[in-house]
Design a protein that fits this description.
With 882 residues, the chain is α/β, with parallel strands linked by helices. It contains 35 helices and 34 strands. Strand 18, helix 17 and strand 19 form a beta-alpha-beta unit. The longest helix is centred in the C-terminal third of the chain and has 26 residues. The chain binds phosphoenolpyruvate and magnesium ion. It is an enzyme of class 2 (transferase). Belongs to the PEP-utilizing enzyme family.
Length: 882
């Protein structure tokens, strides 16, 4: 087979499409060469050689040596220089280049081919002895580190010694003689430390470097990077051997990096930085302050722009920018070097960009006729959109980070620290902005979470209560911040570094990074119009899957509609029960001695519940709304503190002792598998009857008075057996018909169920007899399929993911092979019984891009997710089609 591909002088054996074989860098060097751009000649050893190398005990295909020699010859003849020649030597760089970019993960060696003889030739070529010896010592340092495994600090130490000895501070203060002396000392140190001579033979150097690059594919850094980025180990890396060009031979030399458009805003101008008389590494390493390539986007106009300093090269680069964009039809990230006034391209690739830039570039390129709308939609990744949908920290602002936790719910928020939900609510009523800080949150904190600008917890993972609820509210949350110790008694928390933050102090949270900052850091609001709006119009034209939202309040419903929600897929009614003025009535209802007592308490709740539904229906203006009847374990509503029990006992006219006994009786060992969902509705039918009455009265009144046509979808949770649903359906129909008769209007309604237990999925054909729709509650379905507690998994699930036992957190991304199969079975069985059954998903997965794509594939009608994820789901649904 062919293992080596040449590029140089306008001819290339490879091309951009050959990334799998040549790696990204090699494929693009070939492509640039072929379209006539100035690229130093070289060759690429393919990724197949890497695969061979590992399959054959770190050896090469027998024909490789001859192929390399042949291509080296071609390089020599193009350059008019000879590898290893003492008078006019060719020097090369040896770099890795995988299919996917793995920045900084693998090794690079520059200036290869230098030895005590060839250095003389470089002096002759450059006329600069200092330059030649500086290049030589850099090569010895790099090579001994990367190829020979030398501890680089030992050589660095010799360098420092030399500077001390001469009383200078900068490398640039050392002379040719100093570098020459250091090369000798370096080699002696290497010999002394590892017992091997530094290789003088350029061929030996070359093969040593090639081996090191292939070897670096399996270094720990690279392995970890691949795991984090889902890059398969068997892809392998290619090796690029290329003629050296120098940006550090004098003031007519330079090196730089540039983007063909601004990668943070997407603005259509040339954006880049360069340094005169420097090597490529110097720009990125930040040792010297890089200068702008042009005046137009220069923040500091006192810095000399390349446009002025090297005008001809600049003009050539501008031209190349145009050629590259027309050719690749995407924003490029380029590296270039200027050697003695001559420009060379060293790299091009599609540039990484912010979400904002991704959208602007995609929309602009459609307008410019470079790409079509479909391509534009595919250019923006759904997960990236998240950045745009929340207020974010002003990138220009100063920040003082005091702790870091999990980025549980994106966005940014500032406010005064409070430690209880009641404090949060009270402060919000006074118009104050607060951050609620808790060890962890529970349903009792909902009102405080609503009132707060952001939530910070010391414990809990990405699926903890705080994280899920905050995401649902679109509220910024940093969870599991082990760096802080919360001291409720002292109304303060301390950070690991000893910073103490007291109640009333202002902090800022960044839910996208997990950072906690002292003081108020300014934010910028999300931009949903303009280019974003244009792109989303295209998105909606392509997608088939509908996107609804999970919303419990009129406010969330409005936000979701602004984000493009086409209905509510899940309105959880329990959160409504926690509001301060209701929870007493709810507790009274739960703890009532008999049906009559329960009905008395429910009668107090009914008008409030009806008001909730009126508000939500009104916001949704006739779009479908699925309302789930009460679901959580009763005990979540119970008072536990003595003072609460005393107060409640008083208001109910019973003794605290008997009330406590009742509370104890209701305690459950495993509440998630306990008295919840439809089991409540069956044992306390009055509760669901009241809710159904509230829903239907709201729908009937609005239909009568405001002219909407509303078709409420009433949803029964946690059904496992069809008989449960059959009985509850009877009750529901009875109440609905009573209300309709009493109101004297015609309102249609649907009755359906959640599929959130494996048994329900497996018997979906039976259940579909009683259900007009299914909504997959994949949070519980994941919990019950894995037998993995949603509330406790945070303690060990991160370990599962980090150590590769699970590829992803199944509460974040749907487990398609397990849980997903149950969903698929239920879809098929449900449709077999009732072909027009409406099918959707309302678990957290409804807003996760890969899960949305799965939902499209198995034929769901819609996904439902938290308001702020609606655009993400819309985009993912479009990607599923394209
Ligand atoms: C679910 O279980 O997936 C669901 C949406 O319901 P909840 O999260 O309220 O249990
Ligand atoms: Mg559920």
């Amino acid at each position: 087979g062919k293992y080596v591909y040449f590029f140089g002088n306008g001819q290339a054996e490879g091309k951009a499409e050959m990334k799998n074989l040549l790696g990204g860098k090699g494929a693009n060097l070939a492509e640039m060469t072929a379209i006539g751009l100035p690229v130093p000649p070289g060759f690429t050893i393919t990724t197949e050689v890497c695969t061979y190398y590992y399959a054959n005990n770190r050896s090469y295909p027998p024909s490789l040596a001859a192929e390399v020699a042949e291509h080296l010859k071609k390089m020599e003849s193009l350059m008019g220089r000879t590898f290893g020649d003492r008078n006019n030597p060719l020097l090369v760089s040896v770099r890795s280049g995988a299919r996917a970019s793995m920045p900084g993960m693998m090794d690079t060696i520059l200036n290869l081919g230098l030895n005590d003889e060839t250095v003389q030739g470089i002096i002759a070529q450059s006329g600069d002895e200092r330059f030649a010896y500086d290049a030589y010592r850099r090569f010895v340092q790099m090579y001994s580190d990367v190829v020979m495994g030398m501890d680089k600090d030992l050589l660095e130490h010799l360098l420092e010694q030399k500077k001390d000895e001469k009383g200078v501070h900068l490398d640039t203060d050392l002379t040719a003689a100093d570098w020459k002396e250091l090369v000798g000392k370096f080699k002696a140190k290497i010999r002394e430390t590892i017992g091997k001579e530094f290789p003088e033979d350029p061929q030996e150097q070359l093969w040593g470097a090639v081996g090191a690059v292939f070897g670096s594919w399996m270094n720990q850094r690279a392995i970890t990077y691949r795991r984090l980025n889902n890059i398969p180990a068997d892809w392998g890396t290619a090796v690029n051997v290329q003629s050296m060009v120098y940006g550090n031979m004098g003031n007519d030399c330079a090196t730089g990096v540039a983007f063909t458009r601004d990668p943070s805003t997407g603005e259509n101008y040339f954006y880049g930085e360069y340094l005169v008389n420097a090597q490529g590494e110097d720009v990125v390493a930040g040792i010297r302050t890089p200068q702008p390539i042009n005046r137009a986007n220069s923040k500091d106009t006192t810095l000399p722009a390349m446009e002025d300093v090297l005008p001809e090269c600049y003009q050539q680069l501008v031209q190349i920018r145009g050629i590259l964009e027309k050719h690749y039809k995407d924003m490029q990230d380029i590296e270039f070097t200027i050697e003695k006034g001559k420009l060379f391209m060293l790299q091009t690739r599609n540039g990484k960009r912010t979400a904002k830039a991704a959208i602007k570039i995609a929309v602009d390129m459609v307008r410019e006729g470079l790409i079509d709308e479909k391509t534009a939609v595919l250019r923006v990744s759904p997960s990236q959109l998240d950045q745009l949908l929340h207020p974010s920290l002003d990138p220009k602002a100063q920040k003082r980070v005091i702790a870091k936790g999990l980025p549980a719910s994106p966005g940014a928020a500032s406010g005064e620290v409070v430690f209880t939900a009641d404090e949060a609510e009270a402060a919000a009523r006074l118009g104050l902005k607060v951050i609620l800080v808790r060890v962890e949150t529970s349903p009792e904190d909902i009102h405080g979470m609503h009132a707060a600008q952001g939530i910070l917890t010391a414990r809990g993972g990405m699926t903890s209560h705080a994280a899920v609820v905050a995401r649902g509210m679109g509220k910024c949350c940093v969870a599991g911040c082990g760096d802080i110790k919360v001291d409720y008694a002292g109304s303060q928390f301390a950070t690991a570094k000893g910073q103490v933050v007291k109640k009333g102090d202002v902090i800022t949270l960044d839910g996208s990074t997990g950072e906690v900052m002292l003081g108020e850091v300014p934010t910028v609001p999300p931009q949903l119009t303009g280019d974003f709006g244009t792109l989303m119009e295209w998105v909606d034209r392509f997608r088939k899957l509908k996107v609804r939202t999970n919303a419990d309040t009129p406010n969330d419903s409005r936000v979701a509609r602004e984000f493009g929600a086409e209905g509510i897929g899940l309105c959880r009614t329990e959160h409504m029960f926690f509001e301060a003025d209701r929870v007493a009535a709810v507790r009274e209802m739960i703890l009532a001695e008999d049906v009559e007592g329960r009905k008395r308490a429910l009668a107090k709740i009914l008008p409030m519940q009806k008001g909730d539904f009126v508000g939500i229906f009104r916001e949704m203006k006739g779009l479908p709304v699925t309302i789930r009847l009460l679901d959580p374990p009763l005990h979540e509503f119970l008072p536990h503190e003595d003072k609460d029990i005393d107060a409640l006992a008083k208001s109910m006219g019973v003794t605290a002792q008997s009330l406590r006994a009742k509370v104890d009786y209701l305690h459950e060992f495993n509440p998630m598998l306990g008295h919840r969902g439809c089991r409540l509705g069956l044992t306390f039918p009055e509760i669901y009857d009241m809710q159904v009455q509230a829903i239907m009265e709201a729908a009937c009144e609005l239909t009568k008075n405001e002219g909407f046509s509303i078709v409420p979808e009433i949803m029964i949770p946690l059904v496992g057996v069809v008989t449960e649903l059959a009985r509850l359906r009877e009750n529901t129909v009875r109440v609905c018909e009573e209300v309709i008769a009493a109101c004297g209007v015609k309102v249609d309604y649907l009755i359906g169920t959640m599929i959130e237990l494996p048994r329900a999925a497996l018997t979906a054909d039976e259940i579909a007899r009683e259900a007009e729709f299914f909504s997959f509650g994949t949070n519980d379905l994941t919990q019950t399929t894995f037998g993995l507690s949603r509330d406790d998994a945070g303690k060990f699930l991160p370990f599962y993911v980090e150590s590769g036992l699970l590829e992803e957190d199944p509460f974040v991304s749907l487990d398609q092979n397990g849980v997903g199969q149950l969903v698929k079975v239920a879809v098929e069985k449900g449709r077999a019984t009732r072909p027009d059954i409406k099918l959707g998903i309302c678990g957290e997965h409804g807003g996760d891009p890969s899960s949305v794509i799965f939902c499209h594939r198995i034929g769901l009608d819609y996904v439902s997710c938290s308001p702020f994820r609606v655009p993400i789901a819309r985009l993912a649904a479009a990607h599923a089609v394209l």
